[in-house]
Amino acid sequence: MTRRDRRRSCARGGHTASTPQATPRKALSVTFGRADHKSLLLGTALVSTLLLGTVVVPAPAKAVTNCLFGNPPPGPITVSINDSITCVNTVPRTNLAGNAIDLFTSGDNHDIYLNNSGELTAGYYGIKTGTGGDGSSITVINSGDITVSSAADHFGIHARTGTYGVAGPNSPIVITNSGDLSVTTSVGNAAGIFSNSSGDNSPISITNSGEITATGMDNDAGVFAQTQGANSRININNSGEITATGSAANGYGIRAQTQGGNSRININNSGEITASSKNNAFGINVQAQGPNSPVNINNSGHIAVSSQNTTPGPYGFGYNAFGISVFANDMMPAKIPVNINNSGDIAARGATNNVGIFA
Asked: Is the pTM for the entire model greater than 0.85?
């Protein structure tokens, strides 16, 4: 009986026995079946979703250390870690034997962000920040009053990128202060705001509207910014009152120094500046040591500088009281483009050389 006869017999209800036959080979279309249009669209959508998810999944968030952990008030804040640091302090902090806030990061691409509105009282530094790696910036925003006093080098706000012999390129510093800073020491240097970057492409920007008083034995400054690498400009904007007194050496109201090339200096001052010292006194003092580093100074504030020393001084130059001065290095006139716009009163007295504007 043929397969055709058997199918007819089964259709009529027959049950005729059949001889064993070889298992027929299944057609390819039977094995895989046939997908309908809806299923195909659903599968495509799922694959697309999975692929899209793979593309847009963000990288893990950068680790950040919160400075408040383990540093309860009214004690100091101290953090030294191989990580970025974020620090928002709103309460008073006191450390008469050291620093009120002390933050340091090591390793590359580790930044410091500090926002302080609490009153700080310290024996050495009100705020001390430092980074030791490449691409590691510092941002300090302070609106709290800071008082620092004892027998050593003292700073109200201190920021340094590239520390412990590490250049630390691409590590800028930004400081914004509206708090009153009082720094007094009977030994060493005193500065209201001090900042230094040692690597290339590491500019410094300082904006101050607070009252600053810096009194010490050696070199004392209201605001001091220094960059050592190339392409590291300095911008200082001051509207606060500054008083700097050096009882044994030099006094600076605002001091800015660049050592690398292509590192311009811009200073805008509308605040009153008083600088006095035993030796040299400077209201606004700039040193641009690298090539292609022009200087621009705009002053509308009153500047008073005085020196107690009228002796000839070292190398026969004598001692100086300069209202606004620009140098290339040490006491040599600058050989770079200098632009000074002054509309403020300048008084210079007491020294061997008393000069309103020197450039």
From this structure: no
Terminal C-alpha separation, the chain: 121
Which residue has tokens 């952990």?
69
Cα–Cα distance measured from residue 351 to residue 358, given in angstroms and rounded to the nearest whole number: 15
Q: What is the mean pLDDT of residues 189-199?
A: 96
Is residue 151 within 8 A of residue 186, CB to CB? The reply is: yes
Cis amide linkage into residue 72, ω under 30° from 0? no
**Cα distance between residue 80 and residue 103, in whole Å:** 6
Q: Is 241 helix (H, G, I), strand (E, B) or coil?
A: coil
* Runs of H (alpha helix) within the chain: 3-11, 28-32, 37-56
Q: What is the pLDDT of residues 128-178, one digit of tens each?
A: 999 999 999 999 999 999 999 977 789 999 999 997 667 899 999 999 999
In angstroms, the Cα distances linking 285 to 13, 70, 102, 151, 312 are: 116, 42, 29, 26, 21
266 contacts 234 by C-beta, under 8 angstroms: yes
